[in-house]
Amino acid sequence: MQTPGAYLIADRVFADTPDRVDDRASWFPLARETPPDGWCEARRSVWVLWHPDGHRLPRQGWKVHVSVDLPDAAEALAKVRDHCVRHGIAFKFVRSRQLALVHNEKYAHRGSSGKLAALYPVGDDALRSTLTELGAALAGLRGPYVLSDLRWHDGPLFLRFGGFAERYCHDGDEPVTAVETPDGLLVPDERDPVFAVPDWAPVPDFVAERIAAVAEEPVTEQPYQIDEALHHSNGGGVYLATDLRDGTRVVLREARPYAGLNGAGADAVTRLHRERDMLRRLDGLPCVPRVLDHFTWWEHEYLAEELIEGDTLQDAVGARYPLIYPDVPAEELAGYTAWAVDVVDRVERALRQVHDQGVVFGDLHPANVMVRPGGDVVLIDFEQAYGLDEDFTPTLGDAGFTSPRVRRGVGVDDYALACLRLSVFVPLTSLTALCPAKVEELLAVAARFPLPPGYAGRIRDGLRRALATGDPEPSTVDIAAVTRFAWPSPVPADPAPLLASLAEGIRASATPDREDRLFPGDPAQFPHGGATLAHGAAGVIHALVATGSQYPELDEHVDWMLRAAGELPAPFVGLYDGRAGIAAVLHDLGRRDEALELLRSCRAVLGDLHGASLHSGLAGIGLALDRVAGPGDPDVLAIGERLVRALSGDPQAVAFAEPRHPGLLRGWSGPALLLTRLYEHTGDPRHLRAARAALRLDLASCTDDQRGNPQVADGSRLLLYIDEGSAGLAVAAHALLRHGEEPWLRSLIDGVGRALGAEFTMLPGLFHGRAGLLAAAALLDGTARPGTARHVAGHIERLSWHAFAHHGRLAFVGDTLTRLSHDLATGGAGILLAVHAATHGTGVTLPFLPAPAPPQAPVPPVARAASPAAAAEAALATG
What we know:
Blueprint: H1 29-32, E1 39-44, E2 47-52, E3 60-66, H2 73-87, E4 90-94, H3 97-102, E5 117-120, H4 124-137, E6 150-151, E7 157-163, E8 168-171, E9 174-180, E10 186-188, H5 205-216, E11 224-233, E12 236-243, E13 249-255, H6 268-281, E14 291-297, E15 300-306, E16 311-312, H7 313-320, H8 330-356, E17 359-360, E18 369-371, E19 377-379, E20 386-387, H9 411-423, H10 438-446, H11 455-468, H12 477-480, E21 482-483, H13 496-508, H14 537-546, H15 554-566, H16 579-588, H17 592-604, H18 618-629, H19 634-647, H20 669-682, H21 685-699, E22 702-704, E23 710-714, E24 717-719, H22 726-737, H23 743-755, H24 770-780, H25 789-798, E25 803-806, E26 809-813, E27 820-821, H26 828-840, H27 868-878
Antiparallel strand pairs: 1-2, 2-4, 3-5, 3-7, 4-5, 6-7, 8-9, 9-10, 11-12, 12-13, 13-15, 14-15, 16-18, 17-20, 18-19, 21-25, 22-23, 23-24, 25-26, 26-27
Helix pairs in contact: 2-4, 8-9, 9-11, 13-26, 14-16, 14-26, 16-17, 16-18, 17-18, 18-19, 18-20, 19-20, 19-21, 19-27, 20-21, 20-22, 21-22, 22-23, 22-24, 24-25, 24-26
């Protein structure tokens, strides 16, 4: 399981799979070997698989993982090879040191990190011999603890019961890897960062003995009570704790040995020691926390530090930042400006105090600055700090506050400070990682605030001084192709040239020679999203065709999409992440037979789905079926009946998995939209009542922001977006309002309509960013009071904030904010569709969600059946 950062190492411009990185220089010797006679090799992603000729693995069983420290990896792999070849055991291993490091980096997946090799012994005898014989051969080697597994004694072998073959089932409505119960049911193959065995799994006696021994190991007491987890990474956690000896509240920093590596291969323990040493060196400064204790509990090390009351600068900015609202008064901008300038000046003074002690902080960004209630600042997280007399290069850091050219001396802090001065006004400094010249555009955005004289000049001077002390710019042809885009201001009423440039750039990025993706997009397109609507070819093809863009490669790309759709695992059937969305695109292209064939596979699993969402679940599949098969399709009516019964509180209804994220795509607003569509087809008032009930479920997750406008509450965050947020609710409410004026619907639409004028969005895309707000504002104009037309114009103008030129053509960053994306959900295709819809008045917010027709007397297309419910029950009985 890869983390998002793993998709940023192979390409400086686009997210890509880590296996495409040029890592040949760091290949392990075993990766260069040829398997012996009678053995075969296969390479998949970052793994090299060796297996005997004709060897057939069972679909699941007990697998053994090898986890060793990087310096010992080559030796360990040689011993793994010898054991497996001798005993005929299939195994796989990470091919290179570089990829093994990525697999165990600080933010690698905690449940799967640290695995250098995986062995697949068949049967209890093979498992026992592997654990004993290979365990003896590897004795003395240590590595990161594989948190999802059981460690075999004190060595580097770990084991868990899980899938050998890649199979999938649904968890709610999301496809996840699966294992099979004895009665043939596929259930999620849990890979949480804690060892667990399914109740039904066979457990050999020697494994059961080890499980029991671990459970009986004495746990030594430690003098701190963990009260709250503040942060987790692969390297350990950060906790709020109480010292049981005197009741003092402290912060505990945890470090796992051999885990959470930085770019130089230093583990979390090494970095914890660095933090301890630097804080002790700086002891007495009011701008750093005091070290209170350093101890080991079990095998992990902990640093107890002074608890700093207050908020991180990141949270403080988030709570005060005025541009997340529309129509900000001048006095509010002035008040925020005075506060932000003062805070950054305090940070500068704190840095100078640290520098005066001969120390470089090394990791300055808003999450590493605490702002006390009285305004004083404290720098936290010194794991990358170093002495000016040290030969040390930081290898971790926030992309918006580091430069590949500035890697040593106080220039590291000076560069980050200049970025901090800018980020408190425009929190988009990570965009400069793609194009350093972008800083001038960000400074122009910052001019929205009444900055003090010379403030912008201080930012430019700080960046210039820091870069002057650094190294020459790395020679990278790819990144040189990304430049500033000459965005017109004001944008013409017909932005056709902009859209043509964007479409041309999207088409030019196509890679039909690849099997895993056609267009570059978000990391979510890997490993199975290359053909889908949200992140793959279907979404891009739909956007290009729907906007009337020139598209001479259309037939070739549709054929590619069809081939890729055929490779999707069976459970990938959703509208945005599976076959249903691809089928809807094919239908609109006139490829009806292929569309119906894909929908057949969707129909086959409807009874297994317990998720209601538009993104992956029944609501989205229902909309696709409605579009392709037409009104009255029995499966659509069956889906509607399931929703009606569940939402009406019918105790006999099949339960739905609770949607995780209120909004249009993953909340109840999507089912509300489908039910509204069904009401328009059938006239059945139960559909309308259920649609309103579904939307009310999402509305219960909303709270009013400081302006009194509804937004979805997610902890301390308030969300306005289409996917997760109140804009998605407003899209569903807009459809419902056509079928009866309800005060609560009117209040929701008007409130969201006002909120849609927010000047700042962190992301540009359709699902989670500005393009989604643009599309919603265009849809609500004429319905929301007051109108939203001026919001539409403002969003089109401000799309420039995230815009770049790639080989001279318009492009946009995706959700990573450090790589360009052309997909529908996060990148250029979604922006193309939103701008076109807004400027052509189509009323389309997302694909296949056209604005409902005006209310009219519906003619139920199921008149031949006794009732819609009877037709639905008949469909379920035969489906």
